[in-house]
Amino acid sequence: MLNYIWVGLIIIGIISAGGTDIYREVNDTYKNGSIIVGMFTQNSNLRGESKGEVEFQKENINLHYNGNLTQQSFNQPIAITIQKDGSRKFVIDVNDNSPQLWKEMSKGSSATGKLSGVISNMLLTEKENVYQINLAIEKINYLKLKAVTNAAFDYAGTAVTLALGLIGVMALWLGIMKIADEAGFLKIVTKLVSPITRRLFPDVPPDHPAVAAMVMNISANMLGLNNAATPMGLKAMEELNKLNTKVGTATNAMCTFLVINTAGLTLIPATVLAIRSAMGSSNPGIIIAPSIFGAGCATVAGLVAVKILQRMKRFSIEK
What we know:
The chain is α+β, with helices and mostly antiparallel strands. It has helices at residues 2-26, 58-64, 100-106, 143-183, 185-200, 209-222, 226-242, 252-263, 270-278, 288-310; strands at 35-46, 49-56, 74-82, 88-93, 114-124, 130-137. The chain folds into two domains: 31-140, no CATH class; 184-315, no CATH class.
């Protein structure tokens, strides 16, 4: 079911992005090919490249884009380069002074974070080193679709990076769990916590491997060892699924374990403490008590909710 939801969200995102881009193309939102007039003040001339600032009057910009894009005139850093064929190209650094539309357009520019194009005319004014220039910004198209595509590739790369990084951790902790199992340590731990697990997971036999995996996962989470908890959680779900008489449908034990895992009851929030310490917090440990209280409330609320829902016929599955 979750796969269908993800596919639906992706389709909706693509349709929405495509619709927005088509609307902007039809209405010529970016004014591709149109000329914008600005006043360029030359500060330097470095081997064919002139640097300075170009001033855009708010009346010209608002009229050009058929809207109220800016409340005042503004200046932008610009670099003008003379090409071998005599043409002049420019690059404008988009910054906080730029209109929001330009900030959006810069994301689809060939020079990310900047606007580039060609100067069709450059006339010296009565003031020294001040020119009136006509700028034609490069064609900008399909920003939303490009953003969706780039995000898809970026997150695909992130997923691969996370998966590869998780292999070592999973191999280590699954190996430790195997050693603990062979040594009989997991059986001892399982017996110690059996009074609790028997009430939380009545459908799971007390000596089942899933119990040990769940205990290890919860213990790792409580100590703030998130990377260590992940392989234990996956192993627990794998073992719980072996008891599942209807594969593909979550059992009561799976739902209960998921609630406990998601609530994230942590006694030592090591990751948060490390981040606060790295950011220069004067008292990184001050969040320990609020973290325990908040996670404890979430765990209790989650367990109460899941136990109530398990007793309702509407959410029960016939075996």
